Amino acid sequence: MTLESTTPTNARAAAIEARPLYQQTRDLLLKRIIDGVWKPGGYLPSEQQLCGELGVSIGTIRKATEDLVIHGLLERQHGRGTRVVPHSSAKSRFRFLRFVHGDGRPLDPVAHLLTQTVRAASAEERRQLDLDANGKVLALTRIRSEKDQPLVYERLALPAQTFAALGLETGEDIVEEVYVFYQERCGVTIMRTVDEVGLAMADALMAQHLGIAIGAPVLEVRRVAYALDGRRVEYRESFTAHLKYKTALE
């Protein structure tokens, strides 16, 4: 089936086909990435091949792939073609790490995994991750440090079944961004995150690991991370008394 020759047969199909052709093409390309037809680090077929297969013009292909380039899912490599972007620590930090030092210097943390357990999801975790009443999560706590100074205390909740193969070791120091492991070990690519920033007071564990007093004010960031297919796959609570949160509105 080619996109340009498709004739809508009902009202729903007509509504879909009313969208710009490049958007339909983009969505088909995205679905192939989600389905694993093109894996992280792998290359797409040539533009000519895609034109022939989908029945669209080269201009449509280029506009569709450019949209995915802008969103960080594809990248063009001169002389080699267009490939699916694999998560790397550097890229994940650039896109998703929004803590900075007070003078604006970027953070280069090491994460120490304190605890991990599979347990029933709390009411808040069920709500944030769209889990049913019997949903279970892989719950992680970790401290993120730089030059041996503890800076961020974090609690993460992940759908247990989705992340059964994550395989992190309690007590280990992790230099890689955790999103790299999500992709490499569990086939989950994080496409976007939504953060909610507020203030909280340090509880006993938080105070112990951050070296502050119980009840001290801390910056709190609650994050929901979304996979390529739109699923909510991570709920994270991060706390710091030492760093700022930086973002950009575009």
Could you explain the architecture of this structure?
Helix 2 (21-34) crosses helix 4 (58-70). This protein is of the alpha+beta class. Helix content is 29%, strand content 32%. It has two domains: 11-84, Arc Repressor Mutant, subunit A, CATH 1.10.10; 89-245, Chorismate lyase-like (Chorismate lyase). The strands form three sheets. The protein has a seven-stranded antiparallel β-sheet. A two-stranded antiparallel sheet has the order 1-2. It contains eight helices and eleven strands. A hairpin with a 3-residue loop joins strand 1 (74-77) and strand 2. The chain has helices at residues 11-17, 21-34, 47-54, 58-70, 89-96, 123-129, 178-186, 204-210, and strands at residues 74-77, 81-84, 99-100, 110-120, 136-146, 149-159, 173-174, 190-201, 217-227, 232-240, 244-245.
Q: How would you describe this structure in keywords?
A:
250 residues, alpha+beta, Arc Repressor Mutant, subunit A, Chorismate lyase, 7-stranded antiparallel β-sheet, 8 helices, 11 strands, 29% helix, DNA-binding transcription factor activity, transcription regulation
Write the layout of secondary structure elements.
Blueprint: H1 11-17, H2 21-34, H3 47-54, H4 58-70, E1 74-77, E2 81-84, H5 89-96, E3 99-100, E4 110-120, H6 123-129, E5 136-146, E6 149-159, E7 173-174, H7 178-186, E8 190-201, H8 204-210, E9 217-227, E10 232-240, E11 244-245
Antiparallel strand pairs: 1-2, 3-11, 4-5, 4-7, 5-6, 6-10, 8-9, 9-10
Helix pairs in contact: 2-4
Short description:
Residues 19-87 form the HTH gntR-type domain. By secondary structure, the chain is an alpha+beta fold.
